[in-house]
């Protein structure tokens, strides 16, 4: 019997929605990276793009345990002399709350062309609204083919 090798053309990506309200940063990030890569598929193959789309809502309400709010540091650098900026979790959560989840999920994705393709399918919002989903009446709604994930 031959081994069945999945093709990218045969895969139809799904849309998943996760509400991050009160969820722990690391646990949410691992679930998100698994969904982006498509590891829930029975025919998962690491070198083939079988990923899904993922929308995360309420990114500003992500929590961390212990003293990480004050002790966890985020670095950014423009490669100019003296340009290293250091922020704590709490400062970054007040300034750009979606950046925290973006960096955590990016660190769990494979580095390279495939990882960048997965990362393009990630949409993170600080509020409870999905801005680009509209029905005929102009109201926001999540269509029926979106899968809501409860963690």
Quick recap:
The protein has 151 residues and is an alpha/beta fold.
Task: Give your account of this protein's structure.
The protein has helices spanning 25-37, 68-71, 89-95, 97-108, 113-119; strands at residues 15-19, 53-57, 73-76, 85-88, 122-124, 146-149. With 151 residues, the chain is α/β, with parallel strands linked by helices. The strands form 2 sheets. It has a 4-stranded parallel sheet, covered by helices on one side. Strand 1, helix 1 and strand 2 form a beta-alpha-beta unit. The chain is globular. The model has no long low-confidence stretch (mean pLDDT 89).
* Element string (H = helix, E = strand): EHEHEEHHHEE
Name the average pLDDT: 89
The proportion of strand residues reads 15-25%
Low-confidence stretches: none
The structure class reads alpha/beta
Strand arrangement within the widest β-sheet reads 5-2-1-6
Cα(first) to Cα(last) distance is 39 Å
Q: What is the 3D form?
A: globular
Determine the oligomeric state from the structure: single chain
Using the CA coordinates, give the radius of gyration.
Answer: 18 Å
Q: How would a crystallographer describe the biggest sheet?
A: 4 strands, parallel
Q: Helical residue percent?
A: 25-40%
Number of helices: 5
Counting DSSP E segments of at least 2 residues, the number of strands comes to: 6
């Amino acid at each position: 019997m031959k081994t069945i090798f999945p093709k990218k053309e045969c895969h139809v990506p799904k849309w998943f929605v996760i509400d991050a309200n009160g969820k722990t940063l690391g646990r949410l990030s691992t679930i998100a990276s698994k969904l982006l890569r498509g590891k829930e598929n029975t025919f998962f193959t690491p070198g083939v793009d079988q990923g899904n789309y993922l929308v995360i809502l309420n990114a500003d309400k992500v929590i961390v345990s212990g003293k990480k709010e004050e002790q966890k540091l985020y670095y950014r650098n423009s490669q100019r002399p003296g340009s290293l900026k250091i922020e704590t979790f709490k400062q970054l959560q007040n300034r750009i709350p979606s950046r925290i989840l973006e960096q955590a999920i990016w660190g769990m994705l494979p580095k390279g062309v495939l990882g960048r393709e997965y990362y393009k399918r990630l949409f993170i919002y600080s509020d409870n609204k999905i801005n680009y989903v509209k029905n005929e009446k102009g109201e926001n709604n999540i269509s029926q083919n979106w899968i809501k994930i409860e963690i």
